[in-house]
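Last lecture ended with a question: if I hand you only a sequence, what can you say about the shape of the protein? Today we answer it with a concrete record. The protein is NAD(P)-binding domain-containing protein. Below, first the input exactly as provided, then the predicted structure, then a couple of comments.
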Amino acid sequence: YTCRSTCCEVTAAGRPGNGLQQDCSGDWRLWIHLSRLGPVRKTFARVKQSGSHLVCSLVHRHPEWKIINLDNLDYCCSPRSLESVENRTNYIFIRGDVCNPRLVNHIFSSENIDIIFHLAAKTHVEASFESPSSFQEVNVEGTRVLLGAAHQARHQPQRFIYISTDEVYGASLREVFDESSPLRPSNPYAATKAAAEYLVRSYWDQYKFPIIITRSNNIYGPRQYTEKVIPRFLTLLQMDKKCTIQGTLPKSRHFLFVSDAINAFLLLLEKGIVGEIYNVGTSCEIPIIQLARELVRMVKKVPESEVNDWLEFVPDRPRVDLRYPIKCEKLQQLGWRAEVSWTEGIRQTVKWYRDNPDFWSDISEDQPPIRREFENATTTVVPISSES
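The predicted structure:
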């Protein structure tokens, strides 16, 4: 925010004359000067605290569409993720909170929003046990605010696409979940995502508001914040610290490369049926200990006999699910297939973190769970042989 005598301004894509202004009275005014853009065929509202890949993809693929990105730049977000689009004429950035009804309502009254991709959420499971109320506020109340504003808008949106998670199903050792499986969330994060899903569904049931819900696997790839398991392991290894593995139970996760996830979301925009739910995932199930060992080999390049020296088992969090297997036939019937193999996806990811070691280096005090983990991790001292 840039303070002025009578207001605070949030710039839109950094361009003078574009922005959102809040008077000291609290009233919001939105002005957007896009004379260079020419005719606008589509207008998008994209809402999230992170996940810049979708924004960049939309901006670059569709220069004739106006992309509005509402983001509060929480700790897990970096403006650097959007540098490739910040000067594009079809991109508008608004820094703000999805839980602010005055702001969200004004955006919908000032812009003819056709499509909403709603990804705004707190997602760190461990933090959800420490501060469940903040997860309820953002994940549930934020969804209610956005739904209400979109439904009441003068210009009715064509699609409201809500990005959820496979964690709403709960864990399973044998059952593979499809979209009709019951929801059994087992942590506060997953519970708030399930609650938000019910809100979204209620707008379809009551008003036939054109919603689509996705439930995806663990999405990974470049620029992901370091609280997630793959960038967490990579960051620890780059600091010459051991990969900290929570608990000793045989946990595994299904991983989905970010470009495949984006392609699924855009396909559902084009071909998805309103009122429906779609699982988005792959058959690529990786045990967490295998993941850690694979990353040790790729990053530290140590002999096989030394791989386990870079692993450390730490106490588990209060409740942990071993695996979340899902079926994706419904999405595949629309023509979607994951195109990036695990080998290629993890190669690209490791390369990006190797080339950008300082991208997430400013781990601040307002991120206690991940900060504690990095501070407490054990530094590995590699012995030097007397023969070398």
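Comments.
1. Residues 132-152 form the longest helix (21 residues).
2. The first strand starts at residue 2 and ends at 3.
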